[in-house]
Every structure is written in structure tokens, then in C-alpha cells.
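Hi team,

As requested, here is the filled-out complex form for the C2E run. I kept the field names the same as last time so the parser does not choke. Let me know if anything looks off before we queue the next batch.

— J.
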Amino acid sequence: MWSYSFEVPILMILGIILLFYFSRPRLPIRRNRVFLQIVIAETLTIIIDVLATKACNEFDDYSLLWLDVINMLYFVAFFLRSYVFYRFSVSVLRITLGKKCLFSLLIKLPLIVGIAMAIHSMIFGDSGTKTYIYYVDAGGYHSGSMYYLVYSIGFFYVLMSFLCSYMFRNNLGRRREKYGIFSYNVLLLAGLIIRLCMPKYLIMDTLLFMAILVVFLAFINPEYFLDLRAVTFNVVALREHLEENKGNICLAPMGVVVRNYQEMRDIYGSAQIEEGLALIGKYLKQTFEKGIVFYCRNGRFAVLTSPKTDFESKRKVITERFERPWKSMNVELYLTVGYAAFDTEIGKHSTETFLNTMMRALEKAGSADGGELTCFGEDELVKTEKEKSIRQCIEAAIEKDGFELYLQPIVNAVTGKVIGAEALARIKDQDGKILPPGLFIPVAESSGRINALGEIVFDRTCKFISENGLEKMGIEWINVNLSPSQFIRTDLAERYASIAEKHGINPGSVHLEITEGAMIDDAFLQKQIGAMTEKGFKFVLDDYGTGYSNLSRLKKCPFINVKLDMSIVWDFCKEPDAILPNMIAAFKHMGFCITAEGIEDDGMVKAMKDIGCDLLQGYHYSKPIPAGEFAEKYSA
Ligand code: C2E
Ligand code: MG
Ligand code: MG
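And here is what came back:
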């Protein structure tokens, strides 16, 4: 006797999963479509299995035709179910094979053979010949000699799944997905083995149901793709959708971005702003009926829609809507928006490149003038690709000690003698050409690698000082740049002090240059500079004139030197006025020493000397040169 009592609760739980699944917004991607096929195949298999089992148990009460048909249907459903599970693995592993690809045809062959054999068994099966999966006669249902084929096909698809998971394992981003694909395939395998050993217990369906649960929890749960109280899809969904629709020219991406999001968040508070964003998300979904709306954090919405969409008229409508407040029970927000449009095909570049460019476009749109359209084209994508290759160069330089230390002399304005130097990093690209810091420093800053990079430059500078001796070169100190993100590390003082100690040099011989960007929080700034000065380090304010520092803030910081950015030096030399001389007078009154950067000729030397600059740095004296060359040139 076959037992099928536990099939009923399985069917009920499957129903609940489906109900939940359909009650949430779903992304139209392959894995979701295949998931539905799995659930349908599993439901059909269970129903047919119960009917077939009942008919086999009580075969006297049923016609032979029914017994034949229901068993044939069972085997067909069984094969289809094995196949769709395999297809699910292929979809989550992001394997794309053309429909006409020989491999895709071959992989379907066991399924086709299985179905053909089941139909063949139904029509011709009897006890006399040996080529049937099953046959029925007056004694009821009997397995045929080809019954093993059923399991072979099941095993074939599970093993193919394992094989693909191994070969394309790097396509699975999250650990949840890696464990997920392994677990559901193990459950499928166990189900087949148990069915093979104990055919009378229908435990296989329970194990398959567990496999579906794993699939749902690891890959399908709609919540993974939702944002803003489930109103819109999130960035994970956007990436997934772009990945799958790379070659689809029927998709036009565009962006609608809340301007000055951070400021708005400060003004309204996070709870209010999030409620407002949910309202905006809902509104955009209604406005772009045929599009898909994604929320990409920080007030940025991306919409994927048909290229036929008249974006200009949508833009007008949305701008008009934003003239009114966003209101709900406890919210009344006045916001403005910027727009981004993309004049390029999605499929030309990698998804990562496209997504990164898109995020940059959205960010730019958020700081553009209200209602303004920021257009992004091929150039921007090429820029993103370039950034990627710069990131690789930085990685390679960090790993293989590929940094070169360059030094630029700094001259005493009165004596004209070299008194110090600034350390500047250089790395080479794949072709061995030197990359200017203007290119790689911002990339290192945005990727966080500036910490490693900065520390290497500092280490190299200390080593250089200990090997060559400052005195021997006739200089008193070397300036090293410190990026804002390095400056905010709480362990900075310990790390830098231990490096200086390792090389046996006095921390005071290295002056740290920070820009105004690092001076975000007054209290923290003072604490950090305090901790560093306690260890003996000295600070220089770099690029003065490019930020928003006011004198009262500077007064609180024990800088030993303020470096005027070359842009204000050049402006003054072109068109002298009273502002810079007065500013310098104020700085000197506060006890700061002043350096002018970007000195390129005698006229500039004189102008800067006349207004009271103490130190001068620029191509007029020397361009930055390799540290070894510097030591040779200036050593007595
Ligand atoms: P910075 O700290 O303001 O460095 C001065 C920059 O001005 C250097 O550019 C230098 O070559 C350039 N310069 C000096 N004199 C003249 C001149 O007379 N004319 C012109 N046109 N340029 C002059 P560089 O080496 O390309 O570095 C650019 C920026 O990259 C630096 O500006 C600094 O902010 C950053 N940087 C360089 N190395 C490092 C580093 O190791 N760590 C960090 N955090 N930033 C670095
Ligand atoms: Mg500097
Ligand atoms: Mg500077």
C-alpha cells in the first residue's frame, strides 16, 4: 500500500507561499518565472501522484484506461519537475544559452526521451516486452524493466545542477545564494535516493517541498527586492533586472532625484522624509505605468521604461507635482527634483559599469538646479570603465608595492633655499605609464583604498628620511598628504606613530597636510589633531581657498602652516587685489606660516614674497621628482 496522507498539508503550505508571493510586487525576471514553473510542476506532480496512488491502491474500482493515463501523467510531471529545478539553477547562476545552442537542445533530450517513453508505455506497455517504464493489467500497476530510466533522468538533472553550480559559482553574489543552491540540490538528490529505496513511502514529495522552501527563502522572497515600505524595487532588483536585460534595446533608463537629499533629511527628519519618499515612489509608479520604478537610496529613483515614453512631458508633469507638498497623516514635505536621462544602450558595457554610471548620473542630478536634466551618454560609461581600470592599478600597486615616491621641493621665500619637500604618490598603469594623482587619488578615496595607499606613502617617506637623513639634504621636514577619510580614523595616531618609530624617525620631521574637506566636525577635528600632536606630528592646511573654512575655525586648530591653493595664487597674480594680502596678514597675526603653491615664474615669486608668503612651491623651482633623484640632487 502506498501512503499519501502527508501530501495534503504540503499542498496547503504551497498555497500559502504562492499567496504571499503574489501579494507582493514581483520583478519580471527569469528566476521568478522559473520559480512559478517549479511550484506549478510540484503541485501537479503531487495531485497526480495522489490520484495515481489511489488508483493503484484501489485498482479494482478504476478502469484500466484511467490507471494507464494517470500513471503516464505522473511520469511526465515527474520529468518536468526535475527539469524545471535544473532550469532554476541555470537562472540563478545567470547562465545564458541561446535557444538554438546545441547544449540547450542536448540538455532537453533526457526530458523528451522520458516523456516519449511514458507515452509509449501507456500505449504499448504490457508484461510481454521489456522496453516499458510501466504497464497496467488486470493485476493493477507494475513497474516495467525500463523503470530505472525515471530515476536516471531525475539524477541527470540534479547532477547537471551541481555541475553548473560548481562551474559558475562566482556568479552567485551572496553566501545565502551559495548555500541555497547547494541545499536544494542535496534535498532533490536525497528525495530521489529515498524514492528509489522506499518507493511505497512518498517522502520524496516532502523533500522536494523542502527544496522549494529553500529556493523561496534563498532566492525568491520578494522582500529581498523591495524598498520604501515595499512600494518600489531596490538597487539589488535594479542590478538583477539590468543583468538580465543587457541586450534589450527596448529599455530606457531615467532618473528622478530629490535634490539636496541630505539637507532635506536634516530639515525634515528621517521618519518624515522616508514617508514622503514612499509617497513619491507610489506617484512615480502611477506616472510611469508601463515602467518599473527602483529606489536607489538617498532620494534617488531610477525608472526603466519603454524608449517610446515621452520623457519631456513626464518631466513637466512631475515638476508640476513637486510644486505642491507631499502630504500624508503626519507629513508635509516641500521638495524639488532633478532628472537624469541616458543616451546610450544598456548592453554595450557590463552591468556593473552601467549601474555605477547610472548612480553617478543620479547623484549629479540630485545636486543640479531644480528641474534640470542631466544627460549621460557613452562618454560617461567610458569614464566608469576607466575608473575601474584605475582601481585595478591601485590594487596592483598596493599588492606589489608599485608606488613610487616623488618629492617636490619647498623653498624659503626670503633665502630662496630649499627648506622642505612635499611627498606625492605616483603609480603606473598597465602600460607602464605614470598615472597622475588627480586621476587615482579620487578613485582611491571613493573605494576606501586611500587608507592603505596613504599609509604606504607615509611609510615610504619615513624610510626615505631614515635612509637619507634630512640634514644631509639640507631640508627640515617633508610634508605628506592625508586624505579626509584617513584623518577620521580613530587609530590614526597609533598607526602613524608606530610607523615613524619603526623607521626610527622623529614624527616632527613629517608634516601632515590635510584639506578643508577633513574639517567636518569641529570637536572631532580638535580631538584628532590633539592626539596626533601629542605623538609629535605637525599639521599643515592644504589647498586653502578651495573650501569654506572661516578664520574662527582655523584659529582653533594648531596648524603650523597654511598652503594657499594655486588657483587663488594664480588669480592674484593675474589680477592683484587687496583680499589676499589682507587674508595673509590675518593668518600671520594668528601665527600661521604661509606657503604659496603653483609658483611658475619670477613674477609669481616676487608677487608672493611681497604679500608676505614664507614658503614657495612650484614648477619654477622643480616639478615633483623621484625620491632617489631628489636625494642625489640635494644631498651635500
Ligand atoms: P597637492 O597636495 O595640493 O599637491 C600639489 C600638487 O600641485 C601636485 O600635483 C604638484 O605636482 C602640483 N604642482 C606643484 N607646483 C605646481 C606648479 O607650479 N604648477 C602646476 N600646474 N602644478 C603644480 P600632483 O602631484 O599631481 O598631486 C595632485 C594632488 O593629489 C595633490 O595635491 C594631493 O591632494 C593629491 N595627492 C598626491 N599624492 C598624494 C598622497 O600620497 N596621498 C593623498 N592623500 N593625496 C595625494
Ligand atoms: Mg598637498
Ligand atoms: Mg595643495
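Two things worth flagging: Residues 7-220 form one domain. The longest strand covers residues 418-428.

Thanks,
J.
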